[in-house]
Write a sequence for this structure.
């Protein structure tokens, strides 16, 4: 692997780590996990086989990514976000539950889309899609899929506003908004917020 | 210890680990802790002296079990469940609190009964009994003892349904239910759900 | 450093650790962090450069203290409290967010005052002051600054009572209270609870 930094206390068993990625201490990346280029992975993390992480992702300390978790490019994972992949877990060693764990059918995926942010200690139920550029507040418990650009807080998490690609909160006047920081314009139609493309802005 | 796997980065100071148990990396088991047979213990865990874990238990990554925590057979502990043993903690090094910490009277136990499941990031207040085969949702904050077979969600956690021994949700028609997956039958009397024994089913 | 215990699996890169402080396993203290005398620091912790911890502080396992976090003397940090220092985080490697991370202006501080207790799994939003001798319940999500001596629970955390310096709950009769354990007297004026000084008690 080219120009990858791995702290001496960490264990990286995959060859699939992209260029310029840093992996800090006490972290374990299993064979079969895949981490893109230019990422920063904090301490005390765990990447199970079957995890895919894109490029330019920041993963703070204490994160455990299970088989089935995919992070697209540019995602931010705050400290100790809880991912899950089993909707009603039992110990597979428990006789009454063993049958369900004979196959991998119990395993549900999680997809975190481009540029999304997951706040500290957030909890993500299994089988959900976390929309692009959304922002999940610290401590939120996410029980449903999340629309792009949405700001969610609470337990269970609910949409309380909308944010720009840069993270700044948007003030929706009617169904349009302009980011005060980066001037990106947005339009909201049928509960979906989307950025206006340059051509649309110009017309 | 017979046929026990301990990852080379882990520290196990007790001899009380049962046969066929696996202990993964960066985990510390103190002298005086006891772990049963056929368990799976994830990474970045801590077992304090005074902890007792039964057989066939699955403990995912990042769990810290304090003195006074007992897990019966077949329990599932999701990633980073928070156990506690002090109802109103202060730093024992703080002069105003030092008196209380001269004895161990402040320490409250936690008992997790046979086959129960604790979801990712759940928080268990001290001094509680977590009933057999109950299921605590990810992110729930458990502030009262939990009846067997109950499904709990939220902060504070409240009972929202009932589950079978296999984990499947039960649909109570009146006061009886049959698991759609494993055909186990249940009856509910005075807020207590219990499985019908075979003799009762036959009669 | 004089009489400092550092577990052999830990990495301590600062010389600023006070006398009689213990640092347990799998913990990393960065150069530029500062920890006072007579502290106890648990396993799987991380102290970033820019962290300041006073004397007589107890920090349980799994805590990550980021640049900008200050703990005064006698503070208790339960297992896996989430501190934060960015109000709307994005991956700094994301092109749309890179501008904001060119300076350190995004970084908000956290100040935890003398004798406060933070319960297991609590989440502390950035930019707040956590008042002296307050008690944050396990699992609380703290979104506003906290008055001294207040007891907070829930998500978002709200004040539900008041506690003594020793941690015991106070029963406010009107606007005055006396701790049943240590006899310290308190008076409440305009939503602020404060201990009566000895002279005031005598008069």
């Amino acid at each position: 692997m080219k120009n990858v930094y791995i702290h001496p206390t960490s264990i990286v068993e995959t060859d699939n780590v992209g260029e310029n990625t840093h992996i800090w201490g006490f972290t374990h990346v299993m064979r079969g996990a895949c981490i893109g280029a230019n990422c920063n992975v904090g301490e005390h993390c765990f990447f199970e086989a079957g995890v895919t992480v894109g490029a330019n992702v920041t993963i703070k300390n204490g994160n455990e990514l299970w088989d089935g978790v995919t992070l697209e490019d540019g995602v931010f994972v705050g400290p100790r976000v809880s991912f899950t992949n089993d909707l009603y877990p039992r110990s597979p060693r428990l006789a009454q539950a063993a049958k369900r764990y004979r196959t991998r059918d119990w395993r549900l995926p999680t997809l975190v889309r481009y540029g999304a942010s997951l706040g500290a200690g957030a909890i993500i139920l299994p089988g959900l899609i976390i929309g692009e550029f959304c922002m999940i507040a610290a401590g939120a418990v996410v029980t449903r899929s999340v629309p792009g650009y949405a700001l969610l807080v609470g337990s269970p998490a609910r949409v309380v506003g909308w944010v720009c690609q840069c993270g700044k909160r948007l003030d929706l006047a009617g169904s349009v908004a302009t980011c005060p920081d980066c001037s990106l314009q947005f339009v909201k139609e049928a509960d979906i917020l989307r950025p206006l493309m340059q051509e649309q802005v110009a017309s």
Residues 5-87+106-168 of chain A form a domain with the UDP N-Acetylglucosamine Acyltransferase; domain 1 fold (CATH 2.160.10.10). The interface with chain C takes residues 9, 25-26, 38-40, 42-44, 55-58, 60-62, 73-76, 78-80, 115, 117, 119-121, 135, 138-139, 154-155, 163-169, 181-182 of chain A (CB under 8 Å). The first helix of chain A runs from residue 198 to 202.
